[in-house]
Design brief:
With about 240 residues, the protein is mainly α. It has 9 helices and no strands. The protein is elongated, with a radius of gyration of 41 Å.
Length: about 240
Amino acid sequence: LAMLAEVGFSARGVSNRCTKFTTHAILWPVFIFFFVLAWMFALLFLVASLAGSDFCVKPDQIVQGLLYDHQDQFGSAIFEYVIYYISGCAVKPDESKLEAITTQIDEVLDGAHKLSEIMTDASIPQLQSQCGLDKAAATALDGSGELLHDATHAINRGWISVRQMLECRTFNPIYTTFVHDAFCVEGVDGLTWLYSSALSMSIFAMLMIMFRAGLYPAKRPSAAKAKNSSLVASLLTSE
């Protein structure tokens, strides 16, 4: 808008120290700076948009390839489950380790649960006679059995929740939302829009450069110069 104002002043023949200083010292350097910056960002957004488009042709395969290239940085079980989630549940991991852990947890919880049942089923006098405890200690032992019983059920429910959380249907939608929807759809569209905006600004900036009157005020030749020019033209014509 400031450059257009300068064009208007030049078209009306308004030229003074203020307009010259504003044009040469402020408007023109700032205009050139932002013009070059717009071209640079347009190129950057174009490259990023093209790279994102190429990535989004086969995003899952590309991500899996990157993971396989850096497989040594992951644990074996973690790597298998990450590939499992990214592949859309197609590449199933080796569940033998997880099953072995589940078996050990079940054995420990089963033993603890049986012990808690023995402790809670016995009465306070039985605990006193069998364990050689006074009434206060027997009561505390009975309360510990109830606490152990509740803890085994809580741990069992927690481990079941962990197994359900590790299923593909839990993590695959998260991956799909971030990679397919957020990056490949919204991200690439956003980069394309930014490129179009930066390119439009650059084109309009080039059009502004073509308005030479915005840089150089309009100058009309004096009457003497016009007369000399006409004489020279007549002499050349006569020769």
